[in-house]
Amino acid sequence: MRYITNPIEFLQSEMLMDDGRPIQFYDWQRDVLTKIFAEDGPDYSAITTIRQQGKSTILAGIGIANLFLIPNQLIVSIACDSDQANIVLSRASDMIRRNPHLSMDADVTQGQIYCKANGSRWMLMSSDKASVTGQSIDWLLFDEIGQLPEFLYDLFFLALPSLSARHGKLIAASTRGAITGDPLHYLIELASTDSKVFAFDSHDIINPTFSQAQMERDKKLMPASVWRRMYQNVISDSENGFLPLETIRRMVYAEAQPYYAGQRYCGVDLGIRKDRTAIATILNPDNSNKAIIDDVKVFDSGGEDFQIEEAERYIRQLWLQNMGQMKVCYDPWQSIGLAQRLKSSGIQVSEYTFSASSRKRLFQNLFSTISEGNLVIYADEELQTKCLDYGCKVCMDGYCANTGYNTFLQELKALTCDSNWNVQHPSSGHDDAVVAVGLALSGALAGAGVYAPLRQGQADFSGTAGSYGTTRQRRSYERDGTEFDQLEGGFLVRYRVSGDEVYPISKQKTDIPFGSLIRSR
Questions:
Q1: pTM to 2 decimal places
Q2: Residue 335 sits in which domain range?
């Protein structure tokens, strides 16, 4: 069959999308294709876009046009791994199968498309450096070149001599910005001095499928660098502040914390080898949208190996202070031994396994919860003003009770975030307290506990030495058949909930001070 010879008109006539309709290119896609298909078009082209902006569609279109319109072409798809390279070829294969004319002229097999009408072939090439040598490639489609790891940079430079001496073309595409010294950076720099090299960055092009309301909503829910990547096509590995200072300042309520009972969630970021350990607890009063950071404790090992027993004692103390209504969220790679000991003592534990994606998810949860005003700290006014602005530099060690909160806020203020949600602390800083709060928040988001406020004075059941305590009516949030510990005037009293009554069953002396169960700050 004879096809339209103009590549762009051919694609708009024969390239069918999922719904069976011919493709309609965005203006910027048409401009890029016009430049690439021009008679005196560039030898090398670098295309940088955000995700879901049509990068794979452009590569598929370039491959299909050359496969069917130019005889005896060798078109090669390559990427940092075979799965990524196969994305474009698979998309093109689907488009060919949808069109009865194209499918009649092509043999589509795994990893290859052959045009029977003119002898052109489109194939995958592995990321093995040896496979790119000795070829005579007419069109080399290099997908996600910006994701190429440093040890594979040679793959790109070895592939260039494989281009056909007649009219070999390179099309490199990426959804990630260039890094100094990488192949994408090389092409962009080359384009500034060589007219046969074309570099396109889809900066300031807004995807027409994005609504203004969606953009404004997400602007509040994403760090500035992530939002700019998503909606303004600004792709950069430079880092920006994770949260604005004013957003962090709004977290702090300069007033006394109300009294609340209910489930606490404890996050543990355990540092073993000469690192800091942080433990944080949060609660969710009244089953509302707000979460309160109830406690932050940072252990500095002073350059020595941290003694896990110290963290374990503190967690057990928190558990007792909160009447056993506390779940510990931890990373099993750090704390599996600690978690097993806590679990054997009846303390609830839940795993949060750290990986690149789960770390991003943890910070995404923190960002959205804080940005929407749903994660708060009750403290004195100094934490809201002086401490947040100046840290602990203006006070003597141990001067105030806000040290743990202040550490968390200072770490949060110093965090940076690039457009790929990679959150980092400064080289001389830490993020232990932030991670501990994030773990606690992850536990709370996954939890389904019932919370209820406790009015001032209700924590004291007026038990006296020589008796176990007093019997009272069961409250709505206390489950029948459960037991809990209650601090009463230097004694730890165990109560059992039975039917409509709560009655004491044991009592023992303790050195945990009364008031640490339900604290007012």
A1: 0.52
A2: 245-446
